Every structure is written in C-alpha cells, then in structure tokens.
From TrEMBL, chain A:
GO biological process: tetrahydrofolate metabolic process
InterPro entries found in the cross-reference section: 2Fe-2S-bd_N, FAD/NAD-bd_sf, FAD/NAD-binding_dom, GcvT/YgfZ/DmdA, GcvT/YgfZ_C, GcvT_C, GCVT_N, Sarcosine_oxidase_asu
All residue ranges annotated as the GCVT N-terminal domain in the record: 604-875
Keyword Methyltransferase belongs to the record: no
Family that this chain belongs to: Belongs to the GcvT family.
Domain named Aminomethyltransferase C-terminal: residues: 896-981
Name this protein carries in UniProt: Sarcosine oxidase, alpha subunit family protein
Assigned keywords, A-Z: Oxidoreductase
Domain spans labelled FAD/NAD(P)-binding: 169-417
MF-aspect GO terms: sarcosine oxidase activity
All residue ranges annotated as the SoxA A3 domain in the record: 505-588
UniProtKB/TrEMBL annotation, chain B:
Top-level lineage group: Bacteria
Protein name: Sarcosine oxidase, delta subunit, heterotetrameric
GO BP: any one term: tetrahydrofolate metabolic process
UniProt GO molecular function: sarcosine oxidase activity
Signal peptide: none
Amino acid sequence: MSGFRTGGGLINRAHRMSFTFDGREYSGFAGDTLASALLASGETLFGRSFKYHRPRGVVTAGPEEPNALVEMRKGARREPNTKATVAELYDGLEASSQNRWPSLKHDVGAVTSLLAPFFVAGFYYKTFMWPASFWEKLYEPAIRRAAGLGHASDEPDPDRYEKAYAFCDVLVIGSGPAGLSAALCAGRSGARVILADEDFALGGRLNAERYEVDGIAGHKWAAGTVEELRSLPNVIVMPRTTVFGAYDGREFGLIERVADHMPVPLMHQPRQRLWRVVTKKAILASGSYERPIPFGGNDRPGVMMASAVRTYLNRYGVSPGRRVSVFTSSDDGWQTARDLLAAGVEVAAVIDARPKVSPALADFASREAIRRYIGSEVVATKGRQSLSAITVIDKTGINHEIAADCLAVSGGFNPNLYVTTHLGGRPKWSDVIHAFLPGTRPSHIEVAGAANGEFSLADAFRSGAAAGGKAASDLGFNTSAFELPKTSDDAVNLSPLWHVERSRQKAFVDFQHDVTVFDVGLAKQEGFRSVELLKRYTTLGMATDQGKISAVNGHAIMAALTGKPMEEVGTTVSRPPHTPVTLAAFAGPYRGKHFQPTRRAASHKWAENAGASFVEAGLWLRADMFARPQEKNWLETVSREVTAVRESVGFCDVSTLGKIDIKGSDAGEFLNRVYINGFGKLAVGKARYGMMLREDGFAFDDGTTARFAEDHFVMSTTTANAGPAMQHLEYCRQVLWPELDVQIVSVTEQWAQYAVAGPNARAVLERLFGNAWDVSNEALPFMGVRAFRWKELPARVFRISFSGELAYEIAVPTRYGEALAEAIMEAGRDWKIVPYGTEALGVMRIEKGHVAGPELNGQTTAADLGMGRMMSTKKDFIGRVLSGRPGMTDPDRPAVVGLKCVDPAQRLRAGAHFLMKGAEPTIENDEGYLTSAAYSPTLSRWIGLGLIRRGPERHGEIVRAYDPVRGGDIEVEICSPHQVDPEGTRLHV
Amino acid sequence: MRIDCPHCGSRDIQEFVYRGDASVSRPDPDGEDALKHFVDAVHLRTNPAGFHSEHWYHSGGCRSWVTVVRDTLTHEIESVGFANEEIDR
C-alpha cells in the first residue's frame, strides 16, 4: 500500500463511485481512470507479465501502457486487455486482473522466472523445434495456457455498433496545446474542422501539468478553448474518439467510444461508433510518449514514468507513492520532483545520469534540500510485490541504497508519429532531440507540437497555430492573426541514456513481452541485427502495446552494440490500428441477417403460406419445395412435384432470373456480338436460347432472349450471373463498342415472372386469360413471345420451357406478382395445379439435359457443353477467337453426357469421379466427374449429368462413379444428356 | 479511398468494381495473328510500379465504366474519366 489521494486534481470529489477489482470493493471519483482510482486506494500490483509472470504495476497514465491490462465487465460484455490507464471510471465498474493463477498475488506461473535462462530471445524457435508432432499435442497447449492476455467473452455481443461517415476540411488529431490551437486557428477561419481526442477530458498535457496559460491554470484555458470550439458551427469536437489509422485517399479511421464509460449503453445508443472521416488536411498533434530507462529491476511495481507521476498528481490528485525518487537524464524529470513537493509528497532523492546539471536545478535542489546524485544511475531495485528501495551507483562508484516506494523515471520523449507512417512514410532520426521525427509522409498530413519534436509548451502553441492556419489558408479560407497564449518556455535538455550498463538485475526494454537488454544483445550475437529481425526474433514491440514506449530503446541498444548511428539503424514503423479496436466495431450493424440484404420475390408471402421452404440463391430466397404434412421426406415432396408437372400442370416462380432490357437501333447487332449464336435476324415475337462466352473462350452465362420489337429485346440470365452479366454488357456497350446505338437496363426487380408447365398448361392459361389473349399453338407457337395488356396491366407471355413440358412464362409488374400467383393457382384448380420449387426444377432440367451452374463452372467451353455447333461462323463474338485455341478444341476434353445407374436401386452423388472398370483410382485414370445428380421419378432411378473425356462418342459405355469420400463405387451408363423426351415432342404440342 | 466519378462525384471505393488494365484494347478479331493478339490482350499484363490506367465499374452508382489513373505505390488517383471518352481520344 503506497499510493494515496492528495488535494487538488480535476476529479469531482462530490461524485463518489464504487467499483470492484478482482472482486474487492473500491471507490473513486468521477474523472478518475481505473488506474488512478486503484493507485489512490494503495494498489500497486495490476497484473503479471506475459512470459515470466512477474508482478507488474502501472507504468504510464495513457494509451501507451504496457502493463496494467485488465479484463473489464462480466459475462457477455467481458473484454480483455483493457488498459486501466485509459478506462474511465464509472459507478459499478467490474474489472479483474489477467494472466495469473490462482490469484494476482500468488501466481503459480511465476516459477517460470526461475527458468528464465531458458526463456531468452528466440526461445520458441530454439526450444520447441522438434519433434514436430509435439507441437500440436504438447507445446502449443502448454504455451497457450501459460501465456495469453486475458479471455474474450464467448457469448454473443449484446451491444450495438454503428458506422458513420464524416467529411471535413481539417482533421485535428489530439487536443493538447498544439491540437487546440490548430483547431482554433482553422475553426475561426470557417473551415470545417473535426477535433478528435481519445481522452474523455480534452486538453492533453494541459490537464496533467501545472502550467499557467494567459494567467490562468492550463486546464482552465483548455476548457475555455474547447467551449469556444464547441460554439463554432463548423467545428465538431469528438472526445473519447481515437484516430486509429490513416488510409488511402485522405481517409482516417476513428473509433468513438460512445458508452464505454457506462455500465451499459443508453437506450438506442451504440456502444461504439466507427467513423470514416474524409478530410482535405490532417494535423497530427498527438504529443509524445516518455521513454523508460532500462535498468536492473526496472519492472518492479512502483517504477513509473516521471510524466505519469505528474499526471496522477495534477490531474487525478493521486500520489503513486509516499516516498518518491526520480531517475532522469533530462531537465524534465526534475519537474516531477517539483510537482511532488508542491503536493506535499516526500522526494527521497533525484538521480540524474548527466554528469552536470544546470545551476538553476542545483539551486532548486539545495533550496528544497533534496538528496541528489548527479552523474549517477539506478542499477537495482528491491521489494517483493512492490518497490521498497533502489540501489544507486554514484559517479565515484559508491553504492547507495535508498528507501522509496515509487521511482519516477524519465528517459526523454519520443514523438508519437503514428499516422505519419501508416501510408508508407519513414521517420527520420534527430540528433537534436535524440528521437525519431516524422520524415517522409503524405502531403495532406501536417505535424505539430511534441509529435513534431517541439516539446516546450510555447512551441506547441506556436506550431499548432501555424499548422492550423496554414491548413486553412491552403484550402482558401481567410485566417486572422492568432495571438499566442502567454506561457512558459521550458526546455527538456535531454542527454539520452538508452540503458544502464552496470545493472545487476534483469533490465526490461519491452515490459509487455518481457524483452530484456540481454535479449537484445543475444539477438545481435545471433545475427538478428536489423530492427525488423530484432523485432521478430525477440518479439520486441510485438505485444498489444506495439512497443509504443519500448521500441526506440531497443533500437538504440542495438545501434550501440553494432556501433552504428541511429539514422542507419532506423526504426520499425507502425500500421493501423494505433490502439486495439473492437472487432465488432468493424462489423458494425452488419451482423447475422444484416450482413447482406435479403431479396424476396413478389410471391414470397404467398409461397410461405403455401408451405414452401426456401433456399438462398445469391441474395435471393427461392422456394425450394412445397412439402405437404403427410410427406415423409424431401424426396417424396420433390418427386410429387415433378410428377405433377409431367402429368398435369405445375407453377413456379422464375422472377429471380436476371432480366435485362435492351433497346436501340443496334440492339440486334449488339446481341450478335455478345452471344455465340445469331440474334440479329431473330423475328419479332420470338425468343431464342443464347450462350455467352468470356473473352478467354470459356462459357460465361446462358438464357433466352426475346424480341418484342425491331429495336427491343429482353434478355434473361441465370440468377447467379444477373449482376456480372449486366456488368459485362455495360463494359461491351460503353468500352468496346461505344459507337453502337444501344441502351440497357436491368429490369429483374421490375417484373415478376412465373412458369406454368405441364400438359395442361394451355388449358390453365386459357382459363386465366379468357378472351384477353389467344394462347393456342397457332397464335403462340413454341418459342413465341407476346406483350399485351391484361386487366389494364402490361403483361408478357413467353412460350419457353426449362422443364421440357408444354410451358409458358407470364410476366407482370412486380407489385402485381402476388396477385398473379394467386390467379394462376385459382385458374389451375381443376387440373390440380401444384406449386413447385427449385429442387423439382433441378430434377427436370437434369432429365432434359439442360446445363446449369454445376456445368457452367468457368472451366467448360461451349463445345464441352454440347453447343459447339451453336457457335456462329458468320460473325465475330466475345470469346470466338480464343475458343479456337488448340487446348479449347481438343477432342479429349471432358464434355457433357447423361448418366444413369445400371442398378436402379443405387444412388448417385454429384462429385463422384469416373473411372474405367477395373482401373486403379489414380489421378492419371480420372476420366471426369459427375456434375449434377437427381432421382428421376419419371425414369424411376438416379440419373445425372457429367463431364467425361470424349463424352459424346461414348454413349452406351459403362464406367464407374467412384466416390471414396462417401463410400460410393457404382456402375453407371453413359447416355445422351436428354433422358426424358429427347425429341422434344412435348414442347411443341 | 474514394473515386471521383465523372457522373456522380466523389464516392467511396466500395461502390466500384475493379476490372483491370485500361491500356489494353480488344484486338481486331479479323486481323492478322488475331489469336496471338487476343492471347496477349487477355492474359499478358504489365505490373507497373507507379501510375497505372485501369477500368473500374461504378456498380453501386451510375453504372459507368470509368478509367482511373492510379499510382500503384501510393494509391494516389491522378485522374478519372469515362472509359468511352478515353477510347475516343
């Protein structure tokens, strides 16, 4: 127990909140984070480290936190790896520690610390190499149990997530002094500004330091500025919103945590909202991250960043310790000593690694009677589960043990460059600030303040205002002079200290992945010297914090070891997201049935009432069969439907097939060029089956196209290819032949279309139309089409057939579809008309040898499909030239045939491969495969369609349908694909 | 990423479908060596590091085929025009 509440801070002490951590009750105040409230309650132990299970405390006060990761909430809302340093406290918050067993204080896994010599860099690669079979059974489960960072809930997420777009002129990332002045400058000019900050309190370090700005406290200046920005109609201020990535085309990804600071989201509110912001300019004012100094025992709870200690003191009114020491290599660390004294906290000692400090600092130390060790280093720490003492070696080499329960460490600052590298930009090293600065970056991203290495408060205001003003004026807005706030100009004066060589204990570089200075040395020794190899070999910077505070230290240590300058060693760059983003936010509302729209045909409700079950066909739902209660199984239902069509009459919704309206004086010529067969001379009032190829010569799609006038055709496509066919035709029309007078439009959704099929189809239509239209064989022969008005409605009738029976398709505008379905069923009552679904349709097309999706699989030519002779030799068409390549015309190619079981009791299954009788089942002996199979009630046996080598020549031959996956090996006879009514006499009656 | 459709204005890339190299045109089917030219046109592609002219289809909008000149290294879009105007030039 060491932390405690001091006075002051930006918390609301009138609003006390209670919460639990590992089941124990605590309390804090509105404005606290989980970390600040736990520190205030005296907690130091927040979690266990990933590899060694070492006790770990909070290190930072922000999103760069590597240690204090907790599981938030319970049950379905449980979320692992939440940084306690950014988790806004709310009444009733429940959190628990992770990566420990059985409890945080007594963790069995900590014994791995004893095995530490074996867990050095690359230990996964070295230790678990062989035997390979041990991986699955032994190594992986063991590693997974020991490692890991918390557990996600395995229940469905009960919350809603939204996606939103926003557009602006200037996106300002970060609301510290640079961001606020940038937003103010751009906002006052009238530019549309979005100011986003991940924090719930806007102001950045103005809230964390004891600055005076324009004569008032810095946080008050920030609040006033935010108020002004909010009053501007052209400015949107977004707190609790992380800009997590820069994307192509000046887009940024933002995650707004709408309700993470509440027990559950408010009614009608999402938990989080994913924003895509399209901006003209972006100003990165994301500040900097203080970097640790790797020294012996630097991971002991109680060792923290010096700036974080100030944040806890000044913003949250919490001192992380009662007796605090400071270890620094810059002037900035001394500020922590000042703030501690101001808050009445004892400063045990200041250890400054630099050989000399400025007279001002020396005076300050003397005045306040602070023990100081100049030119000295911390080499070890003590304490069981939290810090109790530090060991310092002074410049004469003498050891001093100093009692302290908190050590504030300052190793300088790394600008937070993140979005500058997301689009391929590379950072550049600066010997002035001893850190990486934004280097090459996209022209629309400007950087200001500490993110650009301009660390002092005055510089932050200055560079922020300049960037905001420049962005606005570049976009043509009139900017007025901006009076910079009066404030201090405090320098950092860093002399970098990358690690303490004389350390006597493990010195950690990457806290979250337990990478030590020794590991970096090992990587060098074993040849993994480039920063990219170092990262992967040691996993430095690969944890959930992505090395925000550790990577540069690791790279600098490697630079020292290899004797190379930092600019040559370079650094790794980050990719989005900058901080983890909930996957559910990327899914947004598009979950389950909302993932894609459901298309329902006009007859859907009618079909549902008629007992239909449905199958997904692309986005469509199509009735697959209409089972009756007494029917035992699907086979009985489908066979009944097929028999009804073959013996009397059936009714089927075919609206989902693609319908494309084609008009223009060159419409016929256009079709000639896209279909393999001729359409230019098709008579008005007639339809024709057509096949389209891709330009590479393979079959693309098929369907019937009807001519209603010289310059008007209606094409039908398969359901699956309705979209691609439209796209293809648009390409042909717009890009290949813009000179043709032709217009096309999809009318799939505009017309409901129904097939009426069976020997009694004409009788049904006569009753349906009465005297309105003559459907006699003379008036409307096979493949005839007519457009007419029926009961005031535009209607079309096509005498085309997929089932092989006398059949018609009738089309009316979609909104009359349901009425037409009812009218057809009513008209067909005397002939016991039955509705049939896609299953029966499939059986009948296999009986008739019509190819469909399984045969039009992108690997078959027109000739393979038995339509070689349909290819016109009198004209060019898409795919003609390449369908003449030798490989496409090879007579050995598998081509479509019909198949039937030799033994009618046996069942065929699609996917079975064809083998000669007695042949070994090898790839070399493979003759082709069965594409479609169905039980034919008409032929009382299983039949199918298949692709087999030299198929058309082999009718009558018997081969095996070999199906080892499902244990099938049966004899089938090759036959014509047209197994029912091969002469087509039923079509023409 | 966004494409500035010449008909609809700036639209999200999700509204568009990519096709490929716009510099390839359909060879003369009756010309000499038509087969060879078609094989090249359909199957051979250069893979430039830098500006690349390509066809996109505004399927979620006006259904225009557009020619986009895009830097394959940065995804920066230099120009967008109707594909048929490109042909006319």
